[in-house]
Amino acid sequence: MDFIDAHLHFGGRQEEIMGGLDIYPGLIALGLKKAYILCFTTFGLDFSDAIRVAPYHARAHYHPDYVDANNLLQKIRNQLEDSDFIVPFLDFRIIHGDVESWLEQYMSFGYKGLKTLFIPEYDDFLKVDSPADILGTTKATYLDWQQRVMDYGDKNDLCLICHLNLNNHFEYAREFLANFPHLRVNFPHLGFSRKKMRLLFDNFENCYSDISGLFDHIKKDPNGYSDYIEHYKDRIMFGSDCAFNEAKKAEEYLEIVADLDLKEGTTRKLLYDVAVEFLGGP
Ligand SMILES: [Zn+2]
Q1: pLDDT at 66
Q2: Ligand 1 centroid to residue 178 C-alpha, Å
Q3: Fewer Cβ atoms within 10 Å of its own Cβ: the N or the C terminal residue of the chain?
Q4: How far is the CA of 47 from the centre of ligand 1 (A)?
Q5: Alpha-carbon distances of 169 from 6, 72, 121, 159, 173, rounded to whole Å
Q6: What's the CA-to-centroid distance between 67 and ligand 1, angstroms?
């Protein structure tokens, strides 16, 4: 069955990524049409600063020479026979200063969407400092930088994957959706709260989510999740949340989705249609 992996991480050690490319022909044979790959970018910062906005468990995968995804992305496109499935998203979690100039510079590289990890203050769960602290600025300035990117997305009919914990930052999420009505926003992992996610789905048509990172939870409560996905079938996407060279795990996740026994139309929406609409059409 055709599927889109709407949440795949990218960036890191060249040898890990280049050595893992052989998984893709198999995934494409299985039905992989597109992968929305979230490209870690540095916006000119030193590695030692940029790396502090990556969660601890992910840091070992990054390397100073390739912490900015642009170079490696180009290499992969050259090396893979079929690289059409690659849909790069610009990770702007640490964008700073002259935001519009950075965007002009990076977006010309072919990014189709935006991605951020929203951390207005120290994140206790991820153990990650706010970019405001790392860059030595105020929370207000950080918010301004982030929202200027959202404004750019709103004006340019783009989509945004915004990693944000609704248990802590629900009001920000609501504000983004209200202030940028043309920006299609995916708060992934069902926002870490199905209850709060529901409030956003019911009130904002530009709100989306994905089930990446939730497969262990889904296995424990298949009926709860299948009811929820049926109800919000026009908003929820499939994603693996894997590193680029570990995307083979998607096979196992597809089986977990199959075990949910969703209606056929719902499965198709979850695996494919919603992600196409989120991106703004085929
Ligand atoms: Zn993720």
Answers
A1: 66
A2: 24
A3: C
A4: 20
A5: 23, 33, 10, 20, 7
A6: 17
Measure CA 176 to chain center: 16
Tens of pLDDT, residue by residue over 182-238, are 999 999 999 999 999 999 999 999 999 999 999 999 999 999 999 999 999 999 999
Q: Which residues contact 217 (CB under 8 A, 6 or more apart)?
A: 225
Q: What is the pLDDT of residues 41-65, one digit of tens each?
A: 889 998 888 888 888 877 877 777 7
pLDDT at 269 over 80: yes
**161 Cα: distance to centroid of ligand 1 (angstroms):** 9
| Ligand 1 center–CA 38 separation, angstroms | 8
pLDDT at 167: 95
Quickly list DSSP for 236-265: EE----EEGGGGGGHHHHHHHHHTT---HH
CA of 241 to the centre of ligand 1 (A): 5
Give the pLDDT score at 57: 78
CA of 244 to the centre of ligand 1 (A): 11
pLDDT band for 27, please (50, 70, 90 cuts): very high
Tell me how far apart the alpha carbons of residues 108 and 101 are, in angstroms, rounded to a whole number.
Answer: 11
Output the CA 240–ligand 1 centroid distance in Å.
Answer: 8
Angle at 275 (CA atoms; ends 61, 241), nearest 5 degrees: 20
Instruction: Domains for the chain: give ranges and CATH numbers.
Output: 3-279 (3.20.20.140)
Judge whether residue 139 has pLDDT over 70: yes
| Distance (Å) from CA 165 to ligand 1 centroid | 12
One-letter amino acid for residue 134 of the chain? I
pTM strictly above 0.85: yes
* Interval between CA 118 and ligand 1 midpoint (Å): 12
